[in-house]
Structure formats: C-alpha cells, structure tokens
Amino acid sequence: MVDHRQDLELVRRVRAGDEQEFARVFRENYPRLYRFAYIRLDGEADSADEIAQRTLCRAMRKLHLFRGEASLFTWLCRICRN
User: Fold this and answer.
1) How far apart (Å, rounded) are the C-alpha atoms in residues 22 and 37?
2) One-character DSSP codes across 23-47
3) Model confidence over 21-40: pLDDT tens digits?
4) Which terminus of the chain has a smaller tally of CB atoms within 10 A, N or C?
C-alpha cells in the first residue's frame, strides 16, 4: 500500500487556512489537471482550462472528504473525470 501521509498533511494545512499551501495545491496541480482534461476533450483548450479550474474549486470545497487512500492528484483526477 502506498503512503499518502504527505498529501494528508498538505490537506490538513489547507483546511486549517494555510494560504501558502492552498496556493501550492493550485500551482502544482492545475497544469497536470489541465493536461488531463485537454486530452479527454480532444484538444479543446478553453474547455480544459474551465474544467481544471472547476475541479480545483470543487475539490477545495470537498477537502474534508479526502481520505488519503490515493494520492491527492488521483483524487483530483477522479473529480475532474466526473
């Protein structure tokens, strides 16, 4: 089993109001989510941008549901896909 304690700690800090960690989540995950969406949307750049932003916004509202059973990015991809 893979250890996702670092992601759990990051999420804990974001939920506690750490703005630097909040910015880090966006900075580190937006480009990857954009590429994830872009491929699935057949190169629709504007749509991929919107989906990546929506995914991160939705994830921030749902951080209390992150359990660390998968990496944070995998969890974000699941939200993006849905």
Assistant:
1) 21
2) HHHHHHHHHHHHHHHHHHTTT-HHH
3) 999 999 999 999 999 999 99
4) N
